[in-house]
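Q: How would the C-alpha cells look for this protein?
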Amino acid sequence: MMLRKPNRCSGVILTDVIAPAGFLRLAVYRLLDGSGQVIARGNAMISSRNARTVANLAIASALSILLAACSTSLPSLSSSPPPEPEVAPEMPATVRADEIVGRWGLASFQNPNDRARTEAAARGQCKQPYVIGAGANGGVVMHLADQATPQELRLKGSPSGKNYIGPPGPAGGDQDREIVSFDGRVMVTRFIEKDAAVRYGNMVYVRCAPRA
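A: Here is the predicted structure in C-alpha cell form.
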C-alpha cells in the first residue's frame, strides 16, 4: 500500500520516494512467493535473506536521494555577522559653545559642602585665568584629562537632558565631562571617567570680569 504524505522538499514529493521503496518490498515479497522460500530463476538461486538485503539497500538508496534533495534546498544555517549598530545622531546641547568661550577662574572641590568656598577661590584665580577658546568647527578649545595640549571639543546633548563637553562621539563617553550646572556666570563640570573624576573633582569655572 502506497503511503502518501503531502510533504515537499526541493520540489520532491515524499510519496515519490516512499512509493518505490514500498514497491521494492512488494517485488521481493512476490519473488519469495509470499512464503519466504528460495525461488530458482534460471541458474540463479535467491534466498530470502539475500532478497531482504537487496530490498533494504534499495530503500536506503531511495532515502539517500531524498536527504540529498533536502540538503541542497535548505537555506544555510551558518550565522551571518550581525549588522553594525546604527550611530544615533548627535543631539545639540542646551548650552551653546559661545556661552562658555572666555576667561574663567578655576578651582575644584570633592565635598559638596565646599562649593561656596571653592567658587570664591576660583574667582581669585582670575589673575591667571583659564581661557576657553572658540573652535574652528563650532566647538570649544579645552584640555582633556591629563592632556597638556588643548584641542577642540564639542558640546553634546543627550536624551536625559544632560550636557557634555568632549571629543566627537556618543555623549557621555569616557573622555567627556558632564556640565553639572551652568547659570551663565558659574559652570561646574565633572569628568565621566571614574579615575579622572576622583583626581580632578568637581571643577568650578567662575567667569572673570571683562578686561578694562
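The mean pLDDT is 77.

The chain has two domains: 8-73, 97-207.

Upvote if useful.
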